[in-house]
Amino acid sequence: MAQRVLIAVDFSPASAQALAVARQHFPQATRRLLQVLRPSDVAANSAAGAAHTGTSPLSSKDMRESAEKEAMEQLEAWAQEGEECGIDVGNAAEEIMRQAEEWGADMIVLGTRGRSQLANMLHGSATEWLIRHARQPVVVVHEVSMDDSIRAHLPPSEIAD
């Protein structure tokens, strides 16, 4: 049985469902929620923030720290008591695998949005890359309709009325 489960979170419905599945199927495991910010998003936010505040884009370190803090707050809002949270910046697939290895994860859980083959060809798929390269088992959760037993494990912002 998995003792340490890393759950990749990007705040999509698919990642919310992946988190719910991990909570339901691995209730005794230590769970760590990880969000990987794309460098391009951090850079875009830094440039936009610099333009808005009139500061130099060279102060991007402060902007990155701000983006990471904001992401951590959102991640912590999704976390339940006892779940760990982590933020990283980089290539999602590579950072998920690196974090899983450094943290000693027994399993990686992530959601997939099921992009088209063309989108995967143009942008690549973190899910496919992890399935091929991760040393741990990878559980992939698709956006699917859920029964109440899984819905009960969704993060608060994703629970439908």
TrEMBL record:
Give the Basic and acidic residues compositional bias ranges: 61-72
Q: Which residues form the UspA domain?
A: 1-142
Q: Which domain of life is it from?
A: Bacteria
Instruction: List, alphabetically, the Pfam families matched.
Output: Usp (PF00582)
- From the UniProt entry, list the residue stretches annotated as the region Disordered: 45-72
Q: Which PANTHER family does this UniProt record tie to the protein? A: STRESS RESPONSE PROTEIN NHAX (PTHR46268), UNIVERSAL STRESS PROTEIN UP12 (PTHR46268:SF6)
What protein family does this chain belong to?
A: Belongs to the universal stress protein A family.
Record protein name field: Nucleotide-binding universal stress protein, UspA family
**What species does this protein belong to?**
Thiohalorhabdus denitrificans
The top of its lineage is: Bacteria, Pseudomonadati, Pseudomonadota, Gammaproteobacteria, Thiohalorhabdales
